Structure formats: C-alpha cells, structure tokens
Amino acid sequence: MIDKKNITGLILAGGRGSRMGNIDKGLQDFRGTPMVSHVLNRLSPQVSQVLINANQNQATYESFGVPVWPDALSGFAGPLAGMQAGLLHCTTPYLVTAPCDSPFLPTDLVARLSMALQNNDTELAVAVTGENNAQQIHPVFCLFKATLLPPLTAYLQSGGRKVDAWFGALKTVEVFFSDERAFRNINTLDDLEKFENA
C-alpha cells in the first residue's frame, strides 16, 4: 500500500451546479454543515494534504483551511480540468480525487485504491460498485500518478473532455466497493432533502 504521506487529496468543486439550480453544491448545508466539509473530514485522514478545486466562491472554500485552486482552463471544462489543476499544485507522487457532493465517501477509499494500483502496477485506480452487468464506474473517485500531468494536459489541449475516454488510454485498475451508498452524489435540491435524514 502507498504511504499516505505520498498522496495528496483533491476535492472537485469546480462545476456550475447546474442540476442544483446553478448554486455551488459543495457549499450547500447538509446535516448542519456545508457538504464539502463532510468530504473534507472523511478524506483528510486518508492523505497527507488536501486541495480544493473551485471556480467560484474561492474565499469561502479557503475558509475551510486548505489551498483552493481554480481550473487552468476557462469555461468550466469539467472534472478533468479540475484534476489537471490538482496535478499542477500537487507536491506528492500521487493524487486522489473525490467530488464535493459525496458526503458519504468511504473512509478506506484511499487505502483500497492505493493497494490496487500498487499490486497491479497501473497508472490509475478507480472505484466501481454494483454486480456483474450492472457495475458502475465512479470516475471522479480515483487515484493516479502525478506523472500523468503531461498526457492529461495534452488531452485537454486537444479538446478532450470525456473522463472515460482519457482513462481508456491509461493502465487502469477497477476497485470494487460493495457499499453503493458510500458513492451517492447529491446532485439536486431534492437529493439534498432526501438524504438529510437517510
């Protein structure tokens, strides 16, 4: 397993929040605190340091006590642009990402991804849930080598935006997690209300 001192965590909060009415999802109150704080509390013990990728409300995100970096690309270019921003400011050999709208993320996420990446000698490990033909990949829950910055930048500069297409060009291992609930995204105001007391 990779020592956590060699892993930086990145919380992806760079989207527009369009499915939540164009409000900043990470800053929405959930069970008494902003959603991003739940992610931060779960991810922080698993890594050496945490960064947040945000393209709006940066000062508010900075109030959580971690560095905040916007996309290097303009125009809300998606999660890969957030990953690139994280890599540009990552000082460890590995970066792990999680979205700001997943307050239930597993407390063993990084340990399991890092073990699989190391054991399979791959460049990237990504979380998967579900059974057999109903398996679902969770591409923004992934751990990868910081050396992937140049190919990621080249992919973005060529106009690429699709996460699965970029993953397809890499040596990747899928890591199965049995608890699908840990990867629930709270994308809408209805979801926020639904999971408040779930």
Properties at a glance:
29% helix, two-stranded antiparallel sheet, alpha/beta, 9 strands, 198 residues, 7-stranded mixed beta sheet, Spore Coat Polysaccharide Biosynthesis Protein SpsA, Chain A
Overview of the molecule:
With 198 residues, the protein is of the alpha/beta class. It has a single domain (4-196), classed as Spore Coat Polysaccharide Biosynthesis Protein SpsA, Chain A (Alpha-Beta Complex), CATH 3.90.550. It contains seven helices and nine strands; from the N terminus they run βββαβαβαβαββααβα. The protein has helices at 35-43, 58-62, 79-88, 109-120, 149-157, 163-167, 189-196, and strands spanning 7-13, 29-30, 33-34, 49-54, 68-69, 94-99, 124-129, 136-145, 172-176. Strand 2 (29-30) and strand 3 (33-34) form a beta hairpin. The longest helix is centred in the middle third of the chain and has 12 residues, at 109-120. The mean pLDDT is 92.
In short:
This protein has about 200 residues and is of the alpha/beta class. It has helices spanning about 35-45, 60, 80-90, 110-120, 150-155, 165, 190-195; strands at about 5-15, 30, 35, 50-55, 70, 95-100, 125-130, 135-145, 170-175. It contains 7 helices and 9 strands; from the N terminus they run E-E-E-H-E-H-E-H-E-H-E-E-H-H-E-H.
What is the rounded Rg?
Answer: 16 Å
Low-confidence stretches: none
Tell me the fraction of residues in β-strands, as a range.
15-25%
Q: Total helix count?
A: 7
**How many structural domains?**
1
Helix content: 25-40%
> Main beta sheet: strand number and arrangement?
7 strands, mixed
CATH topology: Spore Coat Polysaccharide Biosynthesis Protein SpsA, Chain A
Average predicted local confidence, pLDDT: 92
Shape: globular
Oligomer: single chain
CATH architecture descriptor: Alpha-Beta Complex
* CATH class bucket: Alpha Beta
Broad structural category: alpha/beta
- The string of secondary-structure elements, in order, is EEEHEHEHEHEEHHEH
Terminal residue distance = 33 Å
CATH superfamily: Spore Coat Polysaccharide Biosynthesis Protein SpsA, Chain A
- Spatial sequence of strands, sheet with the most strands: 5-4-1-6-8-7-9
Tell me the total number of β-strands.
9
